[in-house]
Amino acid sequence: MDRSVVADAVKQLRGAGLGAVRELCWRSYLRYGRRLSADPVFEADWDLLVVLDACRADLWAETVSLDGDLPVGTTRLSPGGTSTEWLDAVLGRPAAALSSVGYVTANPYSDDHVDGDALGHLREVWRDAWDDDLGTVPPRPVTDAAVRAGRERDLDRLVVHYMQPHFPSVADDSGDGDDRDDHEDGIALEAFGDRPLSVWEDLRFGRRSRADVWAAYRANLRAVLDDVRLLLSNVDADRAVITADHGNAFGEWGIHGHAAGLALRPLREVPWAATTATDEGGYEPSAAASEADRTAAPDDVADRLESLGYR
């Protein structure tokens, strides 16, 4: 093996050890010594809730300000720093409150964090539209399923949950590392082997710059915004809101990516952009957007979560 490769690995392992101690201290403080009060989501005034997975509020503001055709809106504090915390807080409520609510989702955590029998409509797009090459669900199948739900279902409220801008990026493949997200509720002391590092590990160890990762993050948001625009012109909603389930940390307080139970503003501050939606009838969704079989082997669910970096 090349000596420079060994030296680089040793240097990174040393840095990981010191960084892990600092991260453990900060995580303990953010978990037990600090609190952030969440803003209500389900109780807010909306007919259509578009959820962009892992979208930081400042990423949203920067991107839509440059593009100019979607509202920047305001920000709110999410009830969680992970999708599971958000799902439990927003959709984990009595069946009577959910009977007229539809949920179209690309997030595999719906498998065990959403009660499909309680909802007026559940369409788990990740079950049949998963792209193995991308390691995620691209935006269009979600849009197609949401348009069909909006047109064909008698629902008072519709939640549409895209996976982007959560890594892996569907729009950017720069860098030497794996663009999988690195979601670990603990300290990662990496054993350098054949497994490629995640995008957050690359950032933590200096293998990719913050600017490079941010550019990939922004490109991934832009990739889904085309579909958000398509959705808003093909469903009806007097009160549509674009938001996120959580954000991501870019090294603030020693944290990278996202984790549960942390009172860290970059994880919890999300966009809240109010707008409207009007079905102009100009788009016909794919026939594949019809109902999918809800059965999936536990290994399939685990594999898809691992592709998203939940290992």
Number of extended strands: 9
Q: Strand order, main sheet: write it out.
A: 2-9-6-1-5-3-4
Morphology call: globular
Low-pLDDT ranges: 173-178, 182-192
The CATH architecture term is 3-Layer(aba) Sandwich
Rg calculated over all Cα atoms:
19 Å
Series of secondary-structure elements, N-terminal to C-terminal: HEHEHHEHEHEHHEEEHEH
Count structural domains: 1
What gap, in angstroms, lies between the N and C termini?
28 Å
The CATH class designation is: Alpha Beta
If you average the pLDDT, what whole number results?
A: 84
Oligomer category: single chain
Q: Which secondary-structure class do the elements indicate?
A: alpha/beta
Descriptive account of the structure:
With 311 residues, the protein is an alpha/beta fold. The chain has a single domain (3-307), classed as 3-Layer(aba) Sandwich (Alkaline Phosphatase, subunit A). Helix content is 37%, strand content 14%. It is built from ten helices and nine strands. It has a seven-stranded mixed beta sheet. Strands 7-8 form a two-stranded antiparallel ribbon. Helix 5 links the parallel strand 3 (101-105) and strand 4. It is globular and about 50 Å long. The relative contact order is 0.21.
